[in-house]
Each structure stands twice: as C-alpha cells, then as structure tokens.
Inverse folding.
C-alpha cells in the first residue's frame, strides 16, 4: 500500500458513536477525496464500524486510531484496519504494530521519541498533540537535524492552520476532524460532510480555506 502519508493531504479522524453511520460517513469522505479514514478506538462500536467500512466502502482505506495496546492491534487488523495510528508508543506496542503487517504511525511529541523510533527503523510517525506540543515551529526545527523523519501532525489542526503544516518538508499529511462537525454527523447530513471533505482534499501548502 502507498504510504498513509501520501494518500491525501488530510486524514479524517473519526469517532463513531453509532455503527450505522460508519458506511455513509465513509462514503461521503471518499466521495470528497479523502480515502484514508482513521476510526478511533474510543467507542464500543469502533471495531464494528471498521469492519463495515472495510467490507462495504471499496474506495476507503480504513485504519484504526487511538491504538494503545497489542490486543487492540490484533483486534483492529482482524476487523479490517489497513493502517494503525497511536498517540504514543512503547516497545511492546511497537513490536505488535510491526508484526501486524500493516502500515503504522506511532505517536511522538519530543525529539528523543523521534530519535528512538529512527533508531528502531521507523521513519513515519504521528506528531501529537500537534498544536499543544509546539506546532509548526517545533516540526520545522526537527527538519534540520532529523530530515529522515516524516510526520502526520494531529491535534488542534483546522482548515486555516493545515496549509502551514503541509508546507513543511517533513509533513506528509495532517489529521483532523473539522470536516465532520458534530451537528452535521448528528443530522446525518452526508452531503455537507462530502463538501467539507472536498475542500479539505484540495488543501495544499500555502492554500488556505476561507
């Protein structure tokens, strides 16, 4: 599979409260040009949602987010997740993600964590929580001494700040949920979700969405 960082400029971070919403929501995101969809393991129906999207939305590349245990790695891949995202990492979690056979993005927020992952042969990472951990200034400062590391920053990023992250040489994509406003999801307004996804898919370095 193409690197998760190269599938689209934005990876939607999705929290599914009702499994019945998973397929139409994913279809709206894919139709809008965002095929990589991170379903977070924060709700009881998350695995069911991943299974449904994997089986019923051919254009989607569905992954699991908030993966924090080896058991969740196995469960997510068993449900059909094609990539894994974690807010952090440990050696045991990293070993499980590596053994899963699917791409993974372990989370980092410090230089030492980045160096430790590079030492272990991992070059693609999630930078989280992006805004709270230093934002674009922090990532820009990492690009000089650690140019081999590539990131998907997530956490507090919106349509106005995303282009600034995408302009950085060490950022492949960003993660966010602004194309999934709570009122649109609650109303099952998938046309609005598709429209917001299309705008997000069109973002590029320096191209702000107003």
């Amino acid at each position: 599979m193409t690197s998760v960082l190269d599938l689209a400029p934005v990876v939607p971070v999705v929290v599914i409260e009702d499994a019945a919403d998973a397929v139409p929501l994913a279809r709206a995101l894919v139709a809008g040009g965002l095929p990589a969809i991170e379903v977070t393991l924060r709700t009881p129906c998350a695995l069911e949602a991943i299974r449904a999207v994997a089986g019923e939305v051919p254009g989607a590349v569905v992954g699991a987010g908030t993966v924090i245990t080896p058991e969740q790695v196995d469960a997510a891949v068993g449900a059909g997740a094609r990539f894994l995202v974690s807010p952090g990492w440990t050696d045991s979690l990293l070993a499980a993600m590596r053994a899963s056979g699917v791409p993974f993005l372990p989370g980092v927020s410090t230089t030492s964590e980045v160096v430790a992952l590079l030492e272990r042969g991992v070059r693609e990472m999630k930078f989280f929580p992006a805004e709270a951990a230093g934002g674009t200034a922090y990532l820009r400062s990492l690009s000089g001494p650690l140019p081999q590391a590539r990131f998907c920053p997530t956490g507090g990023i919106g349509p106005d700040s995303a282009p600034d992250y995408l302009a950085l040489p060490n950022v492949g994509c960003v993660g966010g949920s602004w194309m999934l406003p709570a009122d649109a999801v609650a109303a099952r307004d998938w046309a609005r979700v598709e429209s917001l996804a299309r705008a997000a898919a069109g973002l590029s370095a320096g191209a702000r969405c107003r």
In short: The two ends are 33 Å apart (CA to CA).
